[in-house]
Each structure stands twice: as structure tokens, then as C-alpha cells.
Amino acid sequence: SVVDGNSLALGGHGFQLGDKGGGAWTGLEAIKAVLLAGDGLGPATVLATMLEQQLQASGLGIVEKMAESSPDEFARLAPLVLEAASEKDDVAMAILFEGGGYLSDLAAKLWQTTPPRMSMIGGFSDAMLAWMDKSIAQRMSPVLDEPEMGAVYFAQLQSKLSSDKRN
After folding, report:
1. 51 close to 77: Cβ distance less than 8 angstroms
2. pLDDT at 164 (0 to 100)
3. How far apart are CA 77 and CA 75, in angstroms?
4. Longest Cα–Cα distance in the chain
């Protein structure tokens, strides 16, 4: 977030260390839940059947298939979590509530900087709005441009701030 030349960076630590509430994180959490259920250490979930069908694997086959996968490949599993949640699967709903709660907390923290508007980006962001705190989700605005343009704008702003400090 950049408001009046002041920058606040929260999260954004990448798939392995963050991305909570994003599509890749959601897919990873689904796999973890399915593996725990398969070991008898977690609650049963319809995600097991869904993931096994999509991945054409079960148990250790899922681990072998996903061990070297990219964040995009994990994100492709996120719609299954939405589907399972629509069937009232407790595990899927818990994943989405956790992600939505985190995104709500993150947005609330960013709102403290009083930005004029806030948008969520990413292929899974629209779906997560339904799992966020209603008062936060209602304040979100549609994106104005592609995410890459935000990165360009941020780089230009950082360059200008650096120039201003040197002068």
C-alpha cells in the first residue's frame, strides 16, 4: 500500500512462505487436509475424491505428483475447495474461512493507512470475497488495471521517492 508517499508492505512473501488466502495456498491446504484424512489423522472430506479424480492419484501418489509443482498447479486445485464448500464440506469451509479471515485482517490493517480505495488481485480473489468479513469485503473496489500496471506504478513511485531523497 502506498498512501501520500508512505509505503506499507504486508504479506506477499511468496507461495512457500505466505500467499494465505490465495489460490495456491488454498490448493495446498486442500492437499494437506486430504493427506491427513487419508492417514486417519484428520476429518473425512469430499475433497479426497475430488482431488484424487483431478490428479489421477491418491495417497503417496498425490505427494509424488505435487512435490515439485508450481504455485499455478496448486492454484488449479482451489476451485475444488469452492465446490466442496458448496456441498457443505466442513474441511473445505474451514480452509476458506481461514483464508478469508486472514485476508480480512490484512485489509483491515491496510485500511488504517486511509487509502482512497483498495482492490484485491489474483485469479482467486473474487471467490475469496465471499469468505471475508462482510464489512471489509463491501469496501473493496474493482481493479482499475492489470496487476502488472500496479507494479510499474509502484516502481515509478519508488524511483521518484529515491530521487527526492537525493535532492
Report:
1. yes
2. 66
3. 5
4. 64
Return the closest-CA partner of residue 51 out of 73, 70, 72, 68: 73
CB-facing half-sphere around the CA of 153: CA atoms within 13 A: 12
pLDDT at 152: 79
DSSP strands (E only) in 6-148: 6-7
Mean pLDDT of each 10-residue bin along the chain, 167 residues long: 64 78 96 96 97 94 94 96 98 98 94 89 91 95 80 74 65
Backbone angles phi, psi at 118, to 5 degrees: -145, 140
In order, the DSSP letters of 135-148 are: HHHTT----SS-HH
Element (H, E) at 3: strand 2-3
3 pairs with which residues across the strands?
6
